[in-house]
Amino acid sequence: MVTVAVELENDSIQETPTPNNNCVSNKRNGHNIKLKNNDQIPGYLSIYTIFQFIGILLILSVFLWLQVYRTGFGFSGTIKICNWHPLLMTITFVYLFANSILHFRNFRNTTKRKLKMQHAAIHSCIIIFGVLGIWTGLNSNLIANPPIPKFYSLHSWLGIITVIMFLSQFISGLISFLYPEIAMKYKEAVMPYHIIFGVLTFALSIVTSVLGFSEKIIFAVNQQHGHLPTEGLFLNCVGIVLIFYGALVVYILVKPKYKRSSKPDDGVTHNGATH
After folding, report:
1. How far apart, in whole angstroms, are the C-alpha atoms of residue 186 and residue 173?
2. Whose C-alpha in 32, 106, 173, 196 is 20 to 30 A from the C-alpha of 162?
């Protein structure tokens, strides 16, 4: 008889005995484990649709702002290169990061192992395109005439902290949850900190983005900002939507009824051993 570790709603682990390696009981405390689809959870499909709509709206708004007010994108010229920075960082450290956080909520009937792999894959994309976004910001400062000082603003300082926290979270997550030799009790102990640290990193990315937009618009419109030009109003609205988007993500994450229920095979590897 093998023992299967099943992750419960409160992130604790319950060991369920099974008669053989190929069969896992679907009962816990005498009741069948019923997995609900997203459309069976009251309100989830609606709030998830709103979440995706706002995320895509944010990306389109940033693109529209840079294309209409900031001369667009290119691979030559300080401004056109620099314009890639806010767009790529919005896509990666806001939209993709949010989807990565909620991935376990959105695909609740997928096995935990697959969800972990997909979660790591999304984070890998964030790192790749995030590096490109950071490079465009730094490179545009270097080629400017005269060169623009680097890492002098609160936005840049918080950006560095956010990236360090994100990379630390990514590496620790790979080791803790995907490395097969890690004991289940260690995974259980690490999980709450992984979640809290991830939410803090996401919140910091939202704050950093808002500061970046404020810094960009102040430098761009200079003295006209006091007269509320159209560009300033537009970007202020983007900042408000960005804050609301971050709050919505945290709300979906902490709402108990939106939490993914455990599947009987969440704690079983392909060879039937516990992990």
Report:
1. 12
2. 106
Q: Which CATH number fits domain 41-258: 3.30.420.360, 3.50.50.60, 1.20.120.1770, 3.40.50.2300?
A: 1.20.120.1770
Tokens encoding 25? 């009981």
Q: What percent of the chain has pLDDT over 70?
A: 78
Provide the pLDDT confidence category of residue 19 given band limits of 50, 70 and 90.
very low
Helix H or strand E encompassing 27: strand 27-28
Helices vs strands, H then E, count in the chain: 9, 4
Neighbours of 235 (CB within 10 A): 23
Instruction: For residues 9 and 11, give the distance between their C-alpha atoms in angstroms, rounded to a whole number.
Output: 6
Dig out the tokens for 158 from the structure. 């918080």
DSSP helix/strand/coil, 104: helix
Please, are residues 262 and 7 in contact by the beta-carbon 8 Å criterion?
yes
d(CA 216, CA 55): 21
For 14, list phi and psi in degrees, rounded to 5: -115, 130
